[in-house]
Fold:
Amino acid sequence: MIRVVLPYHLKNLAHVDGEVELSVPGAATVRSVIDALEVRYPMLRGTIRDHVTRERRPFLRFFVCQEDISLDSPDVPLPEPVVTGAEPFLIIGAIAGG
Structure:
């Protein structure tokens, strides 16, 4: 099981508390995790990735094992600690402003 931590606004939209646990078929990648998340919580479609391009929304970041992987290919396999559930897959809302 892959543990996913969502930012507050996406937790509210999906009506979940705490972490989400997902079973991801095949290789665990950013793409497959987001696909599984959107299947389980259809109200999140288009909030994490653009509907058309399927690219990450600009003000969301992905972290695994304390590393920002937001700019990596969405098809790179996730690290073993994330795949085994020892470490969570974090979706973080970026902060911007002046």
